[in-house]
Amino acid sequence: MNEQGAVQAAEVIHDSEWITVWYHADLKVVHHRFHKAIRGAAFRTALLQGTAALRQRGATKWLSDNRLVFILPQEDQEWADTEWFPQTMKAGWKYWAIVRPEKAAADLYIRRVAATRSAAGVKTELFTTPEAGMDWLTHQPV
Fold first, then answer.
1. How far is CA 58 from the centre of its chain?
2. What is the per-residue pLDDT for 4?
3. Cβ 103 vs Cβ 131: under 8 Å
4. 117 neighbors 125 (Cβ within 8 angstroms)
5. pTM (2 decimals)?
6. Domains defined for the chain, CATH in brackets
7. Phi, psi of 54, rounded to the nearest 5 degrees
8. By three-state DSSP, how is residue 8 classified?
9. Strand 29-34 relative to strand 61-65: parallel, antiparallel, unpaired?
10. 2: three-class secondary structure by DSSP
C-alpha cells in the first residue's frame, strides 16, 4: 500500500475532492477513502459506484478508510440505511473492514453503523490502519 492506503495496482473507479474509491482486482476488494467531510450527491455517487463494482466483479469485500470521516447528515445516513445498504448486500457484500475515524464522536458514530451492518449479516471488523483492514479481508473466504 502507498501512503494513501491504496495498493498501487488498484483501479480508481471514482475520484473527487471528498472521496476516492478503488477496486483491487487481485483481492476482489472495493476500497474507499474519505478525504474530508462529504454529503449529498458526492457521497451517494461514490458509494453507488463502489456497489456497482462489487456487483459487476463478483466481489464480497469492502475496505472503508474512515480516518477523516465526519458524522453524516441525517438524510444521507437514512439513504445509506434504506437504499445503499440493501442494494450492496444484494450485490453480494459479506465482509467490511473499517478503518476507525480519528475523531472520537465520529468513531462512536461509525461503531453504531458497524453494529447495525453486522447485525444484518455483513461480517464487520474495526481497524486503526488500512493495511490491517486489508490483511483481515484477504483472510476471509470469498
1. 16
2. 52
3. no
4. no
5. 0.90
6. 11-138 (3.30.750.24)
7. -60, -50
8. coil
9. parallel
10. coil
Residue appearing with cell numbers 473527487: 16
* Cell numbers standing for residue 19: 472521496
pLDDT bracket for residue 70 (50, 70, 90): confident
**Gap between the Cα atoms of 92 and 62, Å rounded:** 11
Q: Find all residues with CB under 8 Å of 137, minimum gap 6, and list them.
A: 27, 29, 61, 63, 95, 97
Q: Is the dihedral of CA 32, 36, 42, 43 positive or negative?
A: positive
Write out the three cell numbers for 94.
Answer: 459479506
The Cα 29–Cα 23 span in angstroms is 6
The three-class DSSP label of residue 48 is helix
Q: Cell numbers at residue 99, please?
A: 478503518
- Of 66, 129, 48, 137, the residue nearest 97 (C-alpha): 137
DSSP code of residue 87:
H
Only one residue has cell 466483479, namely 57
Q: Which strand ranges, in their side-by-side order, compose the sheet holding 61-65?
A: 11-15, 19-24, 29-34, 61-65, 95-99, 123-127
Q: pLDDT value at position 71?
A: 87
Residue 57, all three cell numbers? 466483479
What cell was used for 131?
493495511
